[in-house]
Amino acid sequence: MVLSIKDRKDIISKFQSSANDTGSAAVQIALITERIQYISDHLRANRKDFAAERGLNKLVGQRKRLLAYLKRSDFERYQSVTKELKLRK
């Protein structure tokens, strides 16, 4: 696994909206962003790993859909998440 349990809990606690919130769009976007950064670093070192490249493209698409949903449903939260994660939008 890319993220340790402690790192995962830190990210969840940073982006959750309530104490029991572990699967909201903001939390999912933050976790996917960490995985994207890890795979991007891997691909810089291993240029011919096409399976990892396909997985990266799937994660980017999933994050894009979640961002679109968050933008439609809660624009203020969308702005705070994109600013916190330093995403261009």
Short characterization:
By secondary structure, the protein is an all-alpha fold. 75% of the residues lie in helices and 0% in strands. It has one domain: Orthogonal Bundle (Helix Hairpins).
Can you walk through the features of this model?
α1 crosses α2, α2 runs antiparallel to α3 and α2 (25-45) packs parallel to α4. The radius of gyration is 14 Å and the shape is globular. It is mainly alpha-helical. The chain has a single domain (5-85), classed as Helix Hairpins (Orthogonal Bundle). The termini are far apart. The model has no long low-confidence stretch (mean pLDDT 94). The chain is 75% helix and 0% strand.
Instruction: Specify the structural class.
Output: mainly alpha
Bin the strand percentage: under 5%
CATH topology grouping: Helix Hairpins
What is the overall silhouette? globular
Number of strand elements: 0
The CATH superfamily label reads S15/NS1, RNA-binding
- Could you tell me the mean pLDDT? 94
Low-confidence stretches: none
Largest sheet, strands/sense/barrel: none
Give, in order, the helices and strands: HHHH
Question: Total number of helical segments?
Answer: 4
Rg over CA atoms: 14 Å
Head-to-tail CA distance between termini: 29 Å
Q: Number of folding domains?
A: 1
What proportion of the residues is helical, as a percent range? over 70%
Q: Mind telling me which CATH architecture this is?
A: Orthogonal Bundle
Under the CATH scheme, which class?
Mainly Alpha
